[in-house]
Amino acid sequence: MGAPFLITIATMALHSSLAVASDPSPSQDFCVAINDPNTAVFVNGKICKYPKVVNADDFFFQGLNKPGNATNQQGSNVTTTNVNNLAGLNTLGVSLARLDFVPYGLNPPHTHPRATEVLFVLESTLHVGFVTSNPPNNMKNQLFTKTLNPGEIFLPFPLRLIHFQFNVGKMNAVAFAGFSSQNPQVNTIANAVFESNPPIFLDILTKALLFDNKVID
Predict the structure, then answer these.
(1) Is the model's pLDDT at 188 over the cut of 70?
(2) Do 98 and 139 lie in a common domain?
């Protein structure tokens, strides 16, 4: 058992560990989610509906054709289609969302802890970007940005990295996002830091952000 063999085994192990970054591949044709544990089998994320009682409505969702209400402080709205409202997505490792923006509306910096995202712009112009994780040797995190017009795609917003979308156009914007998870979830950075329950200690925030207490308040 020489060094080349050991290197090959180590490389295979590394690739194997990276392969579980998104939802596992399904082991059956479908697994429609159901909330009754007495008539189901648990597989992956949700309990599965018995195949003989599955119907076409389990794979159907209506509503992404309608604009979301983006008249809020950020000027954006996300309408999600995931395993919680489209049961047929269970175990399939994909989901979809519609993003609506008023002029200069922002989908603030956030992450998806379970998925990579690909964004398609349908209307108006979006300035989008993501920031890399902490690099070595005290280097700065790198920002990748692009301004997208209708019909253009930004690929990808990688798994767990901070990213954002901002409508730089003078009209309402519409975009669609695809995810590599049946339930990608979202972690909005500002909300997580400043609106947790219970709150993060003020001393921790002032030291981490290099602000004084008044700014944090």
Answers:
(1) yes
(2) yes
Which domain, by its residues, includes 117?
Answer: 58-185
pTM of the model: 0.80
- Rg (the chain; Cα; Å): 21
- pLDDT tens, position by position, 22-39: 555 565 677 777 777 666
HSE-CB for 45 with a 13 A CA cutoff:
25
> Are 65 and 136 contained in the same domain?
yes
9: in domain: no
Average pLDDT for 135-156:
94
Question: Residue 66: left if φ>0, alpha if ψ -120 to 50, beta else—which one?
Answer: beta
Tokens representing 2 are 């020489």
Question: Do 164 and 102 share a structural domain?
Answer: yes
Q: Which helix (H) or strand (E) holds 16?
A: helix 3-18
Task: Provide the token pair at 136.
Answer: 């070595």
